Amino acid sequence: MTIDYLIVGQGVAGSVLAWTLDQRGSSVVLTNDPTTPSASAVAAGIVNPLTGRKLVQTWKADALFPFLHDFYSSIEAELGVRFFHPGTIYRPYRSEAEKLSYQTYTADPAVRPYIDSSTNDDAYAPYINNALGGLTVGQAGWVDLTEFGRLIKGYFIRKNQYYEGRVPVDELLMTESSVIWNGVRFGKVIFCDGVQATENPLFNWLPYAPVKGQILTATVENYPVKSIVNQGVFVLPVRPGLIRIGATYSWHDLDWKTTDEARTYLEEKARALLKIPFEIVGQQAGIRPSSKDRRPFVGIHPDQPAVGIFGGMGTKGVSLSPYLAEQFARYLLDGEEIEPEANITRCVSL
């Protein structure tokens, strides 16, 4: 018997791809090595169509955001558990110049669908420093990645299609039509191993540019704000009395250790943004699997037709993975093309 796919890695990318292939009728074994750190275990899970100080529209946002909202909502409906929290992001203006710039930019018909025109600045004023008002971004929200990962793991365990442990590359017997591992034949093995791909001899040639990020968890009282608030850092209300504050970006010192410097930076930014007190109770660090051209890595190895990769999602894995997993599934099952900007063929020297 041949199992269709061996998915290596159960972060956001691996979970989403495994679910997508399973729903298309493929047989899938999903694996995860609990001894390997994962950026998905740290990430806040925010989906945001307009990012950064300049409100840059996320790549392929018009396709990604309707798709991801339907994708996560459909899993919730099937499994009967909530983990996706659609909502808005409130962006207080930092200056009159920024206010004018944002208002001019968001008048663009291409950007306007992502703007929520019902902003009530007065509702935020008791809790947020927003003397100049603010802008509300719609079609946003966040995924509880801990809960999402738990649900996907449980789903595949119940199907007896989950393996917890390492899948060493040197143990894979690769042929043109299949891969044999642990005495089992798989049609394809697809690596969704995040930043660990930089050490994977099959894919370490891809132009990764890993980014370290840190995030804080804090307790807070009397904070009824439901939206994510973002002004240099984000404040994400997880549940009553608990918020997350993030995130830092560092292309140096790429380890999984938290630092006092990052804590001080985030705490100072958050205290300047919030009018109410909060207490830091946790700090986490992760390494995002970003790429040099800020595009994902999706496709089949140029010399090993039974080996693929689905990664390089960087800071936007929660947003990118559903749409690209569907594209990859259509490539694998129906022969359709992969988005050229995501296909790893762009990285292969001719």
TrEMBL record:
<keyword id="KW-0808">Transferase</keyword>
<keyword id="KW-0949">S-adenosyl-L-methionine</keyword>
<protein>
    <submittedName>
        <fullName>FAD-dependent oxidoreductase</fullName>
    </submittedName>
</protein>
<keyword id="KW-0963">Cytoplasm</keyword>
<dbReference type="InterPro" id="IPR006076">
    <property type="entry name" value="FAD-dep_OxRdtase"/>
</dbReference>
<feature type="domain" description="FAD dependent oxidoreductase">
    <location>
        <begin position="4"/>
        <end position="329"/>
    </location>
</feature>
<dbReference type="GO" id="GO:0008033">
    <property type="term" value="P:tRNA processing"/>
</dbReference>
<dbReference type="GO" id="GO:0016491">
    <property type="term" value="F:oxidoreductase activity"/>
</dbReference>
<dbReference type="InterPro" id="IPR036188">
    <property type="entry name" value="FAD/NAD-bd_sf"/>
</dbReference>
<dbReference type="GO" id="GO:0032259">
    <property type="term" value="P:methylation"/>
</dbReference>
<keyword id="KW-0489">Methyltransferase</keyword>
<keyword id="KW-0511">Multifunctional enzyme</keyword>
<dbReference type="GO" id="GO:0005737">
    <property type="term" value="C:cytoplasm"/>
</dbReference>
<keyword id="KW-0285">Flavoprotein</keyword>
<keyword id="KW-0819">tRNA processing</keyword>
<keyword id="KW-0560">Oxidoreductase</keyword>
<keyword id="KW-0274">FAD</keyword>
<dbReference type="Pfam" id="PF01266">
    <property type="entry name" value="DAO"/>
</dbReference>
<dbReference type="GO" id="GO:0008168">
    <property type="term" value="F:methyltransferase activity"/>
</dbReference>
